[in-house]
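Blackboard transcription, Thursday session:
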Amino acid sequence: MSEEKSLNFIEEIVENDLKAGKYDQIVTRFPPEPNGFLHIGHASSICLNFGLTQKFNGYTNLRFDDTNPVTEETIYVDSIKKDIAWLGFQWKNELYASDYFDLLYSYAVKLIEKGLAYVDELGSEEMAKLKGTHTEPGKDSPFRNRSVAENLDLFERMKNGEFPDGSRTLRAKIDMTHVNMLMRDPILYRIKHAKHHRTGNKWCVYPMYDFAHGQSDAIEHVTHSVCTLEFIPHRELYNWLIAQLEIYPSHQYEFARRNVNYTVTSKRKLLQLVNEKFVSGWDDPRMPTISGLRRRGFTPSSIRNFCERIGIAKRENLIEYSLLEFFIREDLNRTSWRRMAVLDPIKMIITNYPEGQKEMLPGENNPEVEGHDGERQIPFSRELWIERDDFMEEPPKKFFRLGPGLMSRLKSAYIVRCDDFVKDANGNVTEIHCTYFPDSKSGEDTSGLKVKGTMHWVSVPHAKTAEVRLYDRLFTSEEPDREEGDFKDYINPESLVVVKNAFIESDLANASKQLEENPDRRYQFIRKGYFCLDADSTPENLVFNRTVTLKDTWAKESQK
RNA sequence: UGCCCGAUAGUAUAAAGGUAGUACAACGGUUUUUGGUACCGUCUGUCUAGGUUCGAAUCCUGGUCGGGCAACCA
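(Written on the board underneath:)
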């Protein structure tokens, strides 16, 4: 029973710190830049940061890293908050790096006073030239040795808006020959006459990431500042700044961002997909964004379980999309209501069922749970819609459904035998004629017949129609990023297939009401997959999104 | 030519010097009124060469391979 879940390496660090009495409680933060929507990779970071403070004693702040006014917008702030809350996490404080602009400015002044920062007038090209390379040391800027008083004056005038964008920067005075390029007098502040989403036009100078992130961590007394691998070289600067400023010693730890195959997650690329209309928006159900996954029908717990399972480590990784599918199926199997829908219909006529007769048959909502979560009534009649590929004119040996002479069960109804079929002039099958066995009724079957296949169906006169959107992976390549040429060349042309007039059983006409009653309402269209009602639905046109198909071992078998 | 990070089954992740395990995937079977679910089983792994040790995935050294590092982005 004492099955102890092993800790990831960051949890281990935290546990050791706590054991050593380094902290009474831990503080983490989730620090998104509000310039895009959160995606599945962020979910991993969110689960880590919030999970850490849930598992151990502490709390997590939500801090927007909003130091670049030209790319950041309030709509992103709102979507980020919504997504984190939806995932099931609560932040202690909602904070913004921009809240600290005054303090940060005073830190910069302090650095100047200590002789550790100077105002440079080099343009970006000249600066790059003097920076050196990985193998060659850099050279000092001619402006490096101004007096403290001059630097103070210049920096103040930068703040006051006396200089145009790009004309001056505040740089840390460290070492132009340092092996770590980031330590070669990094830029601390740049001039941007731009309106900030929160501070408006108050500032014309904005701190760089390196002069905002660690300082914000320190201000908030963040104990464990967790970020991705590419920030490893920044750690040295992070620590240097904290030491020189003599502020709270937060510590930075890095892990490898999680990558999922058949997706892209770079903000630039996601933005491109949106702007160039390859998808309908940030929340298009094919997008790997949290909002896309939500609209697709993923549940918060399925995403949390996924993040928990894939773990946290430092090595490069590419996680299989099938793992995500596993967790959403696992979840939806337990909770979704079973319903019947025919996506590619063909008509079946039960020749020995009286014309005009109808009966209502009960169908359980969910066989997986005790009590079956109730049941609904399904109308049955002489004419039914069935799935076109449930019939084969010349079925192979292991085909369990219908073909000439074959028997199959209609789910929740009767066993039927296929006697005949009708073809049109083009040779397409248009009708299937069957006889049913009245004593094989579901629940009271005394026929003694044994059949292997069970099929879904919808009664023709009682059928409603709906639009069904069948989603598949957005890309045909496991790593569209790494392919030659443009990643957009690898968009899956069948990532969305719309079925305009699918036939759905009558109860599904209540889907809007059912969603109101339970916002988590999902459906399993029997044998077809898991679906959810899309926000595009209107009373006249219901729209269902396919979240994921059911596992289909027949599809594999039939490929052989 | 430099510096940093990493390397365990197809994928991801455990094993803090002592039986290489788990999940997904794949494959086979049982059950089944969903070719679903559930259950059972099978397959495949410590990058390499040395060293330390009674004993190495783990510690040390060299190599190989992969990733990162020269935005007034974060």
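Lecturer's comment: Residues 73 and 197 of chain A are 6 Å apart (CA to CA).
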